[in-house]
Each structure stands twice: as structure tokens, then as C-alpha cells.
Amino acid sequence: MSTLSSVVAPSFDVEKIREDFPVLKQKVHGKPLVYLDSAATAQKPFAVIDAIRRFHEVDCANIHRGVHELSQRSTAAYEETRAKAKHFLNARSKDELIFVRGTTEGINLVTSSWGRKNVKEGDEIIISAMEHHSNIVPWQMLCQEAGARLRVIPMNERGELLMEEYAKLLNPRTRMVAVTHVSNALGTINPVREIIEMAHKAGALALIDGAQAAPHIKVDLQALDADFYTFSGHKVIGPTGIGILYGKTKLLNAMPPYQGGGDMIKVVTFEKTTYADLPYKFEAGTPNIAGGIGLGAALDYTNALGIEKIAAYEHKLLEYGTEALLQIPGLKLIGTAKEKASVLSFVIEGIHPHDIGTVLDRQGIAVRTGHHCAQPVMDFFNVPATTRASLAFYNTFGEIDALVGGIKKVKEIFS
């Protein structure tokens, strides 16, 4: 195994960073918390917690509708997050960024609004074999409703998409290619720029599920040229219940509203309603204002650290963890793609993942066990579930050592 001195990024002070995350200071079952479940939800720094508290203590008022001071302040803070997200994603315009509850709602908005208008009987939608259920089920529902066909890009035993098979799936009936940027179950980083280019050459659009990518790697929407891109705030050290859907202006303008109600209109009469301009056409009702402001603080924090530095440090963690786990007899990694990010999924011969997770929890080690909302992935690898340790920039090499020690304890108990 590599020595710690050879892998630690020299300018990344993880111990100082950990001081910003109060939850990490606690003990669980009498043991120091080792939190390795950031792919499910990331922990929150004081900056995010304080921003949310400050809104409720000082600025709490509805947005876009008031002329009084509190409403003006809350509106400014909420809309500032949209501008921050534009910078974070390198989008062309903040008007292309729609606030949603998270990645799941972002995908459902596209399937409901764009899909029902544009997908007809005989059309085809392409997804991949490693998708999260939120990028499978909405497309299945659309295909069933429209009489369209869902096609699936296969993958190999390493958890990498077979691009030559993808090329064979594309045809004049393809309307949309919807794939994950980074697999939540495997950690695979997909070649989304190439996937998008191929979709466009075939006359199709491309939607990218960025839930697991946005926290870990630089996302440049202008370079990717995705038609839609969506991510969840709580994966990027922000609050739950808030996220971003990006869509190209031309596409969003042509799409009908996702929901009707307040704030998405210009004029309402009993005879006709005129809808608001982008992005408000897709933001009916009072939004998660505190969540939006908290997301802005999360993006500020991430930008201050530098997403490139985060990616480099997490890659070293992943390398260290991969090498360490591979030395454990009977342990098999699920997902060994050449390009990976922050996920170590594994099975141990003869021990159910739920038992692994339970024993690790008693040692203060938080991992996730199950199918990870990716049941087709489990079926492909012929396993009922995996144990998933997912990493973030606030994790340490010592915590990986603790995981290895915990797994050895698991094996002792079940040997």
C-alpha cells in the first residue's frame, strides 16, 4: 500500500476543513464517527448551516412578491444562488437554470414537459445500464404513455459503458439520450462529452444526470454541450430539497410549464393565462427559499476550496482505498472502471452487505448497503446488494484505515 506521505495533496488541509463540519466531531456507539456515505448525502459546513439560520432569523419573507425590506433581501439572496450556479456550471445564462427539489424532479420535469410534447409512438429513448432509478423510471413512464421504446447501453464487467454498442443503438428514431455523468453505485465516470456529441450527430438530445458528478469533478456545460443537466444540492454539501436543472434556452422556451400556480405567470384571466419568462415559467409556487440560499453558501464553500483541488484529493483517497480493500481476502470490488470518482462498492464472500453495514455501524463507521437505487446494476453483477463506502473531501486516509480495520472485524465475527 502507498504511504500516506506519498498520496496526500500538499495544499489540502483536510483537518482544518473538518473543523467546518460539526457533525464529524461526534461519536457513534462510543466510537469517533467515520462518515463514508456522502454519495447518499454530503455533510454540511457551518457556512451552509449559518446561511439557513440567518435567513430564518433575520430575512424570512417570501420572494418575488414583496416591496418590503425583508422580501427584497430574501429575493436577492435566493436569486444570487442562481448566478452562483451559472458560474459553478459555466452555463451561458442564469435564465437557463431552474430551481427544482433535486435531480429526480429535474429529470421528471424534462420527461413531463419536453417528453410529452416531443416523444411519439415508435420513438426511442436511450439510457445506460448503470442508471439510478430516477433516470430509469420517468423514461419508462414516458415510453409507456407515448408508445415509445426504451433502449439500454450495455456495460462491461468493470462497469464501463460499451461505446460501440451505444453507436449501434443510435438511429433516426432516437429522441433523447439520458445518462449519468458518474455512477452512484459504481463510481464510473462516463465519457459524457462523447456521448453527447454522438447523440447530436444522430439528431437526438442529451440529458445528463449530474448528481454524483457536481460534487467531485469540474462541470463545464458550455464544453459538454448538454441539452439538459441536473444535480442535487444535498450532494454538494448543501441542503436537501433543492437542486438545479439546466436546459438550453431554445428548448426551455418551447416547453410547456411543468406545474401551474403562482409566480410562473404574467397575466391570468378566466379565459387565458400568459406564462412568465424563463426561468420562472417552471417555478410555480413558493419555493424552498432557505434551501436555495443554503445551496448558494455551499457553492461558495466549494468554489473557495476549488473543485480541481477537491477532485485531486478525492482521487488520492480513492486510490488509497482501492489498494487497501483489494488486499482483504474474500473482498471483491464492484466497479473497477479506469475512470472513477469517490465510490468503493464491494461484496465479501459469504457475508450479506446488511450484516457488514450493521457491524461497521457499531464501530462508528457509516456506509450504505443495498441496491443503491440501481437494481439493474446489481442484477448485472449477480449480487443482491453491495456495501458502498463513498468518499468526500472531508474524509481522511485514517478513516479508510478504520474502514479496513472494521471490515477485518466483520470477517472475524462471521468466519
Number of extended strands: 17
Distance between the termini: 25 Å
Protein structure class: alpha/beta
Report the portion of residues in β strands: 15-25%
Q: What is the C-alpha radius of gyration, as a whole number of Å?
A: 22 Å
Which ranges are low-confidence, i.e. pLDDT below 50, for 5 or more consecutive residues? 1-10
Total count of domains:
2
Shape: globular
The CATH architecture assignment of the largest domain turns out to be 3-Layer(aba) Sandwich
Discrete helix count: 15
Strands across the major sheet, in which order? 4-10-9-8-7-5-6
At the fourth CATH level, what is the homologous superfamily of the largest domain? Answer: Type I PLP-dependent aspartate aminotransferase-like (Major domain)
CATH top level of the largest domain is Alpha Beta
Q: What's the main sheet like?
A: 7 strands, mixed
**CATH T-level fold name of the largest domain:** Aspartate Aminotransferase, domain 2
Mean pLDDT comes to: 96
Q: What's the helical proportion of residues?
A: 40-55%
Describe this structure in words.
There is one protein chain. The protein has helices spanning 4-7, 14-18, 46-59, 69-89, 103-118, 137-146, 163-169, 192-201, 221-224, 249-254, 289-305, 307-326, 353-362, 375-381, 397-414; strands at 27-28, 31-32, 34-35, 97-100, 124-128, 149-153, 174-180, 205-209, 228-232, 243-247, 265-268, 273-275, 331-333, 343-348, 365-366, 368-370, 386-390. The strands form 5 sheets. The protein has a 7-stranded mixed sheet, with helices on both faces. Helix 5 (103-118) packs parallel to helix 6 and helix 13 (353-362) packs across helix 15 (397-414). It folds into 2 domains: 4-32 and 306-414, Aspartate Aminotransferase, domain 1 (Alpha-Beta Complex), CATH 3.90.1150.10; 49-304, Aspartate Aminotransferase, domain 2. The longest helix is centred in the first third of the chain and has 21 residues, at 69-89. It is of the alpha/beta class and 415 residues long.
